[in-house]
Amino acid sequence: MSLDLPAPPSSEDEKSQSEWRQAIRRVLLDWRATLDAETHRHLSDLVRSSFKAFLLERPKATVGFYWPIQNEIDLRPVIESHLDSGGNAALPVVSGKDKPMVFHNWTRDSEMAPGYARIPEPQNSDEVPVHVLLAPLVGFDRAGYRLGYGGGFFDRTLAIMPRKPLVVGIGFEATGIEDIKPHQYDIPVDILITDAGVRFVTDRAEPAGGKSDQSSPPCHLCS
Q1: What DSSP character marks residue 160?
Q2: Contacts of 128 (CB under 8 A, 6+ apart)
Q3: Backbone angles phi, psi at 208, to 5 degrees
Q4: Is 105 helix (H, G, I), strand (E, B) or coil?
């Protein structure tokens, strides 16, 4: 599946690159929004299958996941299975624009209410550290840099975390490009999971032997 994307800018200045990223973002979001239901379900099932296998090696991990919006891949069925198997899950809470995300414990019974950008957030639940952080991808490149919605929430959040979780990018393989020309402060994901399977990007991606939460060895977080 190949998409007709704008050509990269010939100039290396930040303004040209930013405008190009915005153009790429519009094309990829439009493609995802118009994906027919059957194809979306089929590709999403492939991602869910790979993600489920990924979590089987991390049965006790606290997974920071996302509430799906704008036709994103819905991983809630896999998260619920992870909870049933003894794992934990958390959703982001955002206090406002240009603020980092904090993660609060989530279960099927969690009270939810619209938060920042009207995205549901858990209410009256504890803030928790996460071992695995899921990053929804509008697009991505081969080095693991992600194209998001442009708000900078994930990079801002990772920059202040005292211990970095294992970051897993979740998206459709068709939205991969050669180079998104990341900002200097952008942080790549450790693992990419798409309908094409699991791709290890960094050396932090291997499971931490003997640790059931399975964060990476340098930044293992105790529950």
Answers
A1: H
A2: 62, 88, 90, 103, 104, 105
A3: -80, 110
A4: strand
User: Angle at the Cα of 155 (from 154 to 156), degrees rounded to 5?
Assistant: 90
Sign of CA dihedral 126, 168, 108, 153: positive
pLDDT in tens, the chain (223 residues): 678 898 988 888 888 999 999 999 999 999 999 999 999 999 999 999 999 999 999 999 999 999 999 999 999 999 999 999 999 999 999 988 888 899 999 999 999 999 888 899 999 999 999 999 999 999 999 999 999 998 888 888 988 888 899 999 999 999 999 999 988 888 899 999 999 999 999 988 766 554 555 544 333 333 3
Assess contact for 67 and 74: CB atoms under 8 A.
Answer: no
